[in-house]
Design brief:
- With 350 residues, the chain is α+β, with helices and mostly antiparallel strands.
- The chain is built from 13 helices and eleven strands.
- It has two domains: 119 residues, NADH Oxidase (3-Layer(aba) Sandwich), CATH 3.40.109; 187 residues, 3-Layer(aba) Sandwich (NADH Oxidase).
- Helix content is 37%, strand content 17%.
- The strands form three sheets. Strands 1, 2, 3, 4 and 5 form a five-stranded antiparallel beta sheet that branches.
- Flavin mononucleotide binds next to helix 2 and strand 10.
């Protein structure tokens, strides 16, 4: 068994770790590997923040946490484990050649004592599913109930509760989309045409949004900011841009919450683990961030999930996943930046 991770091993590990989810598939995490010290450093690519959709940088940090968890799982599959996490204070450490990249945290790597992490395999297959779900059978319901073993998880499987939250999600999401600055940022991350240079690399492609090439052809026009402004004023426009059936067909909405002192980074690690657990059960999922970002929605979420007591107010909502068995298809690959693009060469610092 290997005792050391070489730089070429690290490239293979990074190839797996880059599968972790990130808001808008912006992929803000990049990495460096110090072979002599057997140390991995996570960098934050500041140019991949979402200043309008995520002004406080919460989703950015959740995405970094998910990326770190992904790295830990990829090491685990090869018999290594990450040591104590050391948070780095951004710009005070060595500066990367790309000025937008700042060190975020690091850890030593050593030979693992126990077996591989049981969720490591799921990291290779998990993907977001934005289409409809199959009507849930008893087996699906049992699997979803088993998720309550996961700390901070609450399940909403009541059909009318799901319908109310789905409608509220549409209200909150469409209200954001109607803001010119929000829409411009979202549009920047949309990839409708295969000829787009970001298609299969980052952002949200037509395939991952669950729209056919035929629909994508029209969507690329409807989603032009000036046309969207006109169409969005028409009656029924919300239903066109945020359709309810994929949301309402979910077997359950699964809420993950955390105590108030848990950082977004740590929440990102837990969020990714929950999602992998869902994948391991043979189920599919997709986040519903608008429900935990919008104040009106947060109040409704607390009510629907029975989080209204004083003790229950002492938790923050990490995110909600709509969960079920994908109907009529498999989730499309969202595409990722290449390992070369994600690698930071510390030695070349400015
Ligand atoms: C913090 C966070 C928030 C997200 N919020 C949403 C969301 O509100 N709606 C959505 O459709 N996908 C959301 N996603 C899913 C990402 O868009 C998705 O992970 C990314 O496009 C990569 O695709 P994959 O999950 O198939 O690998 C979120 C992901 C993360 C990590």
């Amino acid at each position: 068994m290997k005792k050391k991770v070489t730089s070429s091993d690290f490239l293979e590990i990074l190839d797996e770790a880059r599968r972790s989810p990130s808001a808008h598939n912006a992929q803000p995490a990049c990495w460096s590997w110090n072979e002599a010290d057997q140390e991995v450093t996570l960098w934050s690519d500041e140019s991949r923040r979402l200043p309008i959709a995520d002004p406080k940088g919460r989703d950015h940090e959740i995405s970094l946490g998910a990326a770190w968890e992904g790295m830990s799982l990829a090491f685990s599959r090869r018999g290594f484990s990450l040591g104590r996490w050391q948070r780095l204070e951004g710009r005070s450490a060595a500066v990367a050649p790309q000025a937008s990249r700042v060190p975020f945290g690091r850890s030593k790597v050593s030979v693992a004592e126990g077996p591989a992490d049981s969720l490591a395999e799921s990291a290779l297959t998990r993907r977001s599913w934005r289409g409809r779900f199959c009507p849930p059978d008893a087996g699906t319901r049992d699997k979803i109930s088993s998720l309550t073993k996961f700390p901070g998880v609450k399940i909403l499987s009541d059909v009318s509760g799901i319908e109310r939250l789905a409608r509220d999600y549409r209200r909150a999401e469409f209200a954001c989309m109607k803001r010119a600055d929000y829409f411009a940022e979202l549009f920047h991350w949309m990839r409708f045409r295969r000829s787009h240079r970001g298609y299969g690399v980052d952002g949200l492609s037509a395939a991952t949004l669950g729209i056919s090439s035929f629909e994508a052809f029209f969507a690329q026009f409807m989603m032009q900011p000036f046309l969207f402004r006109l169409i969005s004023r028409l009656p029924g426009a919300a239903a066109l841009f945020v359709p309810l059936p994929p949301l309402q067909s979910a077997a359950a909405f699964v809420l993950l919450s955390a105590e108030l002192d848990v950082t977004p980074f740590e929440q990102g690690r837990r969020f990714y683990r929950l999602w992998l657990q869902i994948d391991q059960l043979g189920l599919h999922a997709c986040p519903l961030s608008a429900l935990v970002d919008n104040p009106t929605s947060i109040a409704l979420v607390r009510q629907e999930f029975g989080l209204s007591g004083s003790q229950e107010n002492a938790v923050q909502l990490t995110n909600i996943l709509r969960v079920g068995v994908a109907l009529g298809g498999v989730p499309a690959d969202a595409g990722r930046l290449s390992t070369t693009q994600l690698l930071v060469q510390e030695g070349d610092s400015a």
